[in-house]
Every structure is written in structure tokens, then in C-alpha cells.
Specification:
Elements: E1 13-17, H1 24-34, E2 38-40, E3 43-45, E4 59-61, H2 64-72, E5 76-82, E6 85-90, H3 91-99, E7 103-107, H4 110-119, E8 124-129, H5 133-141, H6 147-161, E9 169-172, H7 176-191, H8 194-205
Helix pairs in contact: 1-7
The protein binds guanosine-5'-monophosphate (5GP).
Length: 206
């Protein structure tokens, strides 16, 4: 039995972060489609759903009161306040999957990723980078937000990019298919690590 969570023959815990405008959602959508055994960790948030978002699939949309109650009850493995809204990962979601040997993808921002690193040292941390500041600006402009909102997003994005070097892997998303390929390669390599295959090797000889 392993004493540390996320170590040994348990599943791969992938932690993905990226500033807005880096193309993270397109990459993770494609990866989740390719690997049905890789499950998406559905976070809780107090922000209202965007058009097309589904409760229980994209997020668990809960009230600020309920979010605070869950913080007080110690139900989150990590939580942050971001853009004036709360976001958090439930401990239950994470431990249930890992105990079963499942693989889990967390899409969280860098402060949350740091908290996960402390509690799950064998998690795999991937950061998606936009190819350049000019390209990041142009992608953010296409969202059609006000100049002030865009300026704020750009500043937050640049702050998040400063955290990139704390991650295990960095993917520059110049072209989506190549970025997806790199993500896929990282995932498969991590699944093939000796410590994650030890049980299977032992079973081979039984
Ligand atoms: P959005 O509101 O655009 O869906 O997400 C805003 C940011 O919150 C993104 O960077 C996303 O990765 C992050 N985020 C989503 N869920 C969580 C979570 O459970 N914990 C943390 N720390 N960040 C989250």
C-alpha cells in the first residue's frame, strides 16, 4: 500500500493550467475525446454558467453561501477566488478517482496547482503557453470584450504565465494539432512510468 496519495499504481493526476487565450479548453476537449479513461475533474464555482455550460459537467454551479459552507467543512482540496468568483476542487472527486486507479484531468489556475503539488507530489503539471504576447493579445481581442475587461484579462494572463516555469511540462500552443500531440505524448509517457506499472509487472509473473 502506498502511503502518499497519487503515488505508485494509482491513476495519473494531470494538472493543466493556462492563461485565458492560450487555447487550453480546445486542447483538453480534444484529449478527453481521445482518452475516454481520462476523466475531467468537475470543479465547483460561484460564477454563473455561460451559454452552453452544463451543471455537473462543466462545473457544479453553487451559491457563495454554499461555497463558504463547503470551505468551512474542509471539503475542498484547494480553492481560490478568481475574478471575484470562487473556484474549488472537491477532495472527494479527487480521492475517489485516484483510489480506483483512474486518471484525472484538473483544469485549474496556478495558485490551485501549487496547492495540489503540495498534497499530491506525483501529480503531473502541464502549462499551456500562447506562442507570443502579440498572439495572446489578438486572441483576447477576438472575444469582443470591453477594452477595460480585455486589459484586465491580459494582465492576469501575463501574471499566470510568470508561473509557467513551476510546471513539469510547457506546451506552446502555436497550432492546435501539434499542441494536442504533445499533450498526448506527455500523458502516455507518464502512464508508462515504472512506478505506475509496477503492479502490472508483478501480475505478469503471477
Ligand atoms: P472560467 O471561469 O473561465 O471557467 O475559469 C477561470 C479560471 O479558473 C481558469 O483559469 C480555470 O482553470 C480556473 N479554475 C477552474 N476551476 C478551478 C478550481 O477548481 N480551482 C482553481 N484553483 N482554479 C480553477
Amino acid at each position: 500500500m502506498n502511503e502518499r496519495p497519487g503515488v505508485g499504481n494509482q491513476g495519473v493526476l494531470l494538472v493543466l493550467s493556462a492563461p485565458s487565450g492560450a487555447g487550453k479548453t480546445s486542447i483538453s476537449r480534444e484529449i478527453l475525446r481521445m482518452f475516454p479513461e481520462l476523466r475531467f475533474s468537475v470543479s465547483c464555482t460561484t460564477r454563473p454558467p455561460r451559454p452552453g455550460e452544463v451543471d455537473g459537467k462543466d462545473y457544479y454551479f453553487i451559491s457563495p453561501e454554499e461555497f463558504r459552507r463547503r470551505i468551512a467543512a474542509g471539503e475542498f482540496v484547494e480553492w481560490v477566488e478568481n475574478y471575484g468568483q470562487f473556484y474549488g476542487t472537491a477532495k472527494k472527486t479527487l480521492d475517489a478517482f485516484l483510489a480506483k486507479g483512474g486518471d484525472l484531468l484538473l483544469d485549474i489556475e496556478p495558485r490551485g496547482a501549487k496547492a495540489i503539488r503540495e498534497q499530491y507530489p506525483d501529480a503531473v503539471f502541464i502549462f499551456i503557453m500562447p506562442p507570443s504576447i502579440a498572439e495572446l493579445k489578438s486572441r483576447l481581442e477576438k472575444r469582443g470584450e470591453s477594452a477595460a475587461a480585455m486589459e484586465c484579462r491580459l494582465r492576469t494572463s501575463l501574471d499566470e504565465i510568470r508561473e509557467a516555469l513551476c510546471y513539469d511540462y510547457i506546451i506552446f500552443n502555436e497550432r492546435l494539432p501539434e499542441a494536442v500531440d504533445r499533450f498526448r505524448a506527455i500523458y502516455l509517457a507518464e502512464k508508462s512510468r515504472r512506478d505506475r506499472c509496477a503492479d502490472r509487472v508483478a501480475a505478469f509473473f503471477r
